[in-house]
Amino acid sequence: MAEALSAQGVSYKAWLSEAPRGDAVMPQIPRLRRFDSAHEMQEALAQGGFHAVLDASHGFDRCVTRQAYRACAALGLPLLRLERAAWEIKDTPKWQRVRDVAGANALIKPGARVFCATGWDSLPEYEGFRGEVLMLRQTRRHSRPAPRDFVELVFGDPPFSVAGERTVFGTLRVDTLVCRNLGGAASRPKLDAAADLDLEVILIERPAAPSGIYAVETIQSALDWVRSL
Q1: Rounded distance, CA 105 to CA 123, Å?
Q2: If 0-12 CB within 10 Å is exposed, 13-18 middle and 19+ buried, where does residue 69 land?
Q3: Domain housing 148
Q4: Which of 26, 36, 104, 166 gets the most CB atoms within 10 Å of its CB?
Q5: Domain shared by 70 and 157, yes or no
Q6: Which residue ranges of the chain lie beneath pLDDT 50?
């Protein structure tokens, strides 16, 4: 989105709630900003003299979206939510949808070898884990020890491929995949690999966005919105 705005000569400021991952460099150096409340974000928007807000935050970081929704409503600013389409999943008993990590944990079978892509911060929600092992993917290298006896850290460097994910799942003897419904192509290979290997899949759906928020699924649609301001 930042590249598209820059290519169109649009004046903008990029705020990120956490440091970007990977080697891709944004055309404008983003500012790391995490707000404790919608009112705090509202004050920052007012001080910055912004005319509109384009929320392209992570689909599972609804805190940012809720803050932006309330702040823009208070200031009378146009707000757009850019969020890629969710994945369609197979209609099979081996693929299940749940609302959150705790719901996924409840469905894990005793003795299961689980490959998990729900992030470090989700580990407390696996309390009472019944499987044999929870293999937590980490895309940032670190030396922190796994916080639970049943957790095994699996480091991997994106981009991932279907063939690569099949190899990882086979080597680790994975029988269950737990992941979030992120949408998009970059994170899809693990799902396709799981389908190829006929694994159990527990897919966590995104939390609901604020009711009434205007949202689009493509960068082109977002650019059209920006041009209409």
Answers
A1: 10
A2: buried
A3: 95-204
A4: 104
A5: no
A6: none
